[in-house]
C-alpha cells in the first residue's frame, strides 16, 4: 500500500508530450480495499481497513478515506481504529485479490510481452516496441487504464517516463485513478522540487543524513558534490542517489521476477517473554522458510532475524552463512544464534525469520555434507505436505496451541501474466 492519501494529486492533460517516455508503472488504487468495494458497493466512499478486528491484526490495506486519518499498512488495527474510529474493518479475501490480480496482469500482457510484476497490484511495462500496434506511450497508458476498468471494475494509476524510477514516482504522484506523463526532456523539472525521501532506496535514516547536510530536495541532491553524497550515505548508495537525482536509471524491465528474499513473521496474540516458546517459534518459522526455498529451487546465503518488542521497538540482525542452504534446520540454527545474542528488555510482540541473498541451488559436489541427514528429513516432510497438507507432520517441539495472530509470508509472488 502506498503511503499517499490522494492529496496533492497531479495528472497530465490529454495532449501531454510523451516524447522519450516508453516505460509505464501501473499501480492499482488501494487494491485490497477497492476489491472489497467492488464486491460490496455499500462500502463505497467509506473509510475501510482491511484486516481482522480481533486480536493483534495489522492493517493489510486501507481506503483513501481511511488514509486521510493517518491509517497506514502494517499499522496495528487497534491503532488504526483510534486514528479513524468510524472506519469499517473488513477481513481480507486473498483468493479474490489473487484472482483479480491475474486478470489485471493479463490486460497488461495484451499490450506488451515486457511486463515486470512487482507485487500483486503493480508492474512495470516497456511499451517502446508497441507503438505500431497501439500508438504512443501516452495513448497506450490511456487504453490500458480504460481496459483495466472495463474488464475488472477497478481503477489504476499510471506513470509514464523514460526510466523505471521516474515512472514509479509519476504513478505515485497521480494517485488515485490518474495518469502522469513525464517526457524525457521534462525529467529534471519534475524531479527537482520533490523531496529526497522520494528517491528509490532513500529510507528515513538516509533522508536524515541528507537533510542534516541541507539536502532536502532532489535539486539539492543534484547540486551536491558526489563526494558529499558518498560521505553521507556510503559509496554505493551515494552513487545511486547521484544518478537518480539526474533522472538516470539503467534498470531494464525484466519479465522474470527473481525473489530477493523469502521470509515469514508472526504477530502474537499476547506479548511473549518465555524463552522456550520464542525459540520454538523461531524454529517453526525457519522450517517454513526452508520449505519455500526448496519449492523455488533456491538457497540462502544470509539469514536474518526480526524482533518487535511490546513497545513496538523493532530490531533486526543478520548473519552470512559459510555455505548457502535451503535446509530449515540450518536456517533455524543461524536464527537462534542471532536470537541468543539479542538483549530482550521487554516481551516480544512479533518475530520473523528471513532468508536473503538467494541463489540457485548449488550442484557442486562436496567431500562432506553436514546437512545431508536433515536434507533427507526435510525432503520427506515436503513430500508428506504435498500428499496430506501442510502441518501433517511437524516437530514435536512445535506441537501445542497456536499463539500467533497474524502469520504472513513476505513478498507474495504476483500471478504470472
Describe the 3D structure.
By secondary structure, the protein is α+β, with helices and mostly antiparallel strands. It folds into 3 domains: 1-182, Reverse transcriptase/Diguanylate cyclase domain (Alpha-Beta Plaits, 2-Layer Sandwich), CATH 3.30.70; 192-244, 5' to 3' exonuclease, C-terminal subdomain (DNA polymerase, domain 1, Orthogonal Bundle), CATH 1.10.150; 261-409, Dna Ligase, domain 1 (2-Layer Sandwich). Helix content is 37%, strand content 21%. It has a 5-stranded mixed β-sheet with strand order 5-6-1-7-8. A 5-stranded antiparallel β-sheet has the order 11-10-12-9-13, with helices on one face. The radius of gyration is 23 Å and the shape is globular. 40% of the residues are buried. Residues 363-369 and 406-413 have low confidence and may be disordered.
Average pLDDT taken over every residue: 86
Question: Rough shape?
Answer: globular
| DSSP strand content | 15-25%
- Number-wise, the strands total 13
- Look at the structure and name the CATH superfamily of the largest domain: Reverse transcriptase/Diguanylate cyclase domain
Profile the largest sheet: 5 strands, mixed
How many helices? The count is 15
CATH topology grouping of the largest domain:
Alpha-Beta Plaits
